Amino acid sequence: MAMKHYPAEFKADAVALYRSRPGATIKSVAEDLGVNTETLRNWIRADDGRRSGAHSTTRTTASAQAASLVEAELAAARKRIRELEEERDI
Fold first, then answer.
1. CATH 2.40.50.140 fits domain 7-52
2. How far apart are CA 22 and CA 20, in angstroms?
């Protein structure tokens, strides 16, 4: 059996179709599209990986860096307030 190559747009549309049908099974959508069930399942898994893979790691790292920066600025602001309060009291 020869492997078929599907365009990326077709794959994306197939995954979107599956996701848009809440009660549908992978098998029923695959049959509607005329593709192998495992082929559609692999496309869905690949899409899930793109959704939660590198992007979430990047966001998590960026969020951690932003939080660290905010904490450092807050600590500096508190220190400056203490210094100003001491000057005022003198």
1. no
2. 6
- Does 31 score more than 60 pLDDT? yes
Confidence of residue 35 (pLDDT cuts 50, 70, 90): very high
**Is there a contact between 29 and 17 (Cβ–Cβ < 8 Å)?**
yes
Dump the DSSP string for 30-90. HHHHT--HHHHHHHHHHHHHHHHSHHHHHHHHHHHHHHHHHHHHHHHHHHHHHHHHHHHH-
> For residues 20 and 29, is the Cβ–Cβ distance under 8 A?
no
The helix-helix angle for 26-33 and 37-52 (nearest 10°) equals 110
Q: What is the mean pLDDT of the chain?
A: 85
pLDDT at 28: 95
